[in-house]
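An instance noted here:
***
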Amino acid sequence: MTNTRKHFSDELEELNNRVEAMGQEVLESYKRLVIACEDNDIDLAHHIMDHDKIVNGLEESINVDAYLLIAKQCPVASDLRQIISAVKISNDLERIADYSVNIAKYIIKTKNDNDQFVSRVVALTNLFIPMLKDIIKAFKSRDVEAALKVSEIDEKIDTTYKKYVKEFIKLARAKTDEEAEEAMRVILVLKQIERAGDHVTNIAENIVYMVNAKRLELD
């Protein structure tokens, strides 16, 4: 291996390592969300919001370095797919992190006596966390089969989300205006988690592309 090739390989490995590190940072945000919800921990919710700056910084550095690699090395085939996938996956991770910030804002604004609402947020987040954890592992190991399996979890999240929406719409019709408003707000929060699941399936699609050079759509 020439020095130039080794230098490129080292830079590409560093790029992939940062994508994985970004995924771990986002994962930690969702783990903290569960604790913040369960304990009504406003300080932790603020920490989640502040922590988003780290995620944004990682995405920016991944994008910059990816484009520099392309400009300097003119990679082709699998090397180019790795770089393109790193950019796309980091973009999905940034969006997933944004949803955690939105949920943290809900925790800050919510009331102490709405356990029925918060418990649903916790339940759906607890479904999502293993999905995110598995896709980070699949990216690190380039495991296409494991990446494809996350769609099964996404289906469960979608089903549970729809179930909760029906519950809260029914509740909103039967309760006071204030409780109805709170029910509608939590539906919007739950939608954040449902959308986060969709972005994980996007990551799975990009892992398949990165490894097999094939494009597919996971429902």
